[in-house]
Amino acid sequence: MTSYQRFTALSELKQRILSQGTALDDIITAAHQRNPWFTPEQTRHAIHANLDLLNQVDLENWIKPYLGNFAELSDKTVGLILAGNIPMVGFHDVLSCLIAGFKIQIKASSDDKILIPYILNELIDIEPEFQSRISIVDKLSNFDLIIATGSNNTSRYFDYYFRNVPHIIRKNRNGIAVVSKDDSKEDLQKLGSDIFDYFGLGCRNVSKIFFPRGFNYTTFFEAIESFSEISNHYKYNNNYEYNKAIYLVNGDEHLDNGFLLLKRDERIASPLGVVYYEEYDDIDQVKRRLASEAENIQCLVGNIDMDAKISKVAFGESQQPGLSDYADGVNILDFLNANR
Hints:
- By secondary structure, the chain is an alpha/beta fold.
- The chain has helices at 3-18, 22-34, 40-51, 56-63, 67-70, 91-99, 115-126, 152-161, 185-196, 217-223, 234-250, 283-292, 332-338; strands at residues 77-81, 103-107, 134-136, 145-149, 167-170, 174-178, 206-212, 255-256, 261-264, 274-280, 297-301, 312-313.
- The protein folds into two domains: 3-171, Aldehyde Dehydrogenase, Chain A, domain 1 (3-Layer(aba) Sandwich); 174-313, Aldehyde Dehydrogenase, Chain A, domain 2 (3-Layer(aba) Sandwich).
- It has 13 helices and twelve strands.
- The chain starts with a helix and ends with a helix.
């Protein structure tokens, strides 16, 4: 299978999936039945976001610096341990390995065992030569490289277990936002997407906001009111109500709009239904904080140009990463190229 065949098959995949109508509806329903967090609306959002990566021109530009090395197929197998916190969260890893010509062995999360296998079956139908290069397994074996995504706890296990093979091990990270006094109501409305897409379960979701001192929080709550229907999801609302009860019992100061809690806290990772915040007087103060927390930050949302070496996106775009927006800032293509 040539690199051209890989490009062509992957670029055809989007139209094939999105044209399936009832069959796609059935897959989305099955994913929701398996995992209540994967609502049809959120799953469709994820499918479109991931398939939008499969533009042939974008794929060719992305792979161009490596094309000489990736032109031929590799005999090596990459073991992929995928997360399941949001729909299709491991698709970029799968795409990277396949387009680079590697075999893949996938251990899917129990929370997301339907969507990626379905997508890959359709890819195999387009290009049957992928059949021998894709395996979905319950236990990894006979792999040459590892890309694993998990929690801070599981990462320690992964680091030890896979210490003798080249690996990328990912830990917990979160999105943060920096709001300035010049940001518009529309910016704050878009920030709602960064907070609430996938119910806030993704590593790119905003869990911490820096506001300028004296900020009018009523303005923020009014801007995100259009997301109030999130409280109709029982699992999200259970988390919101639980954290609200804890804060009330403990007498913890917080702000509440009926579906989101704002709590002043220096930590980055907040519980579901809660966003932590801090106030700043000087943007240099924020830059110093970001530099000290860089290993815990997946992306930075906002209009302020920051010096920190952290992936930066505009308001509303945290859950729309491009091909070169690598998780944890680790370039997968560089990793594959170095271990070919």
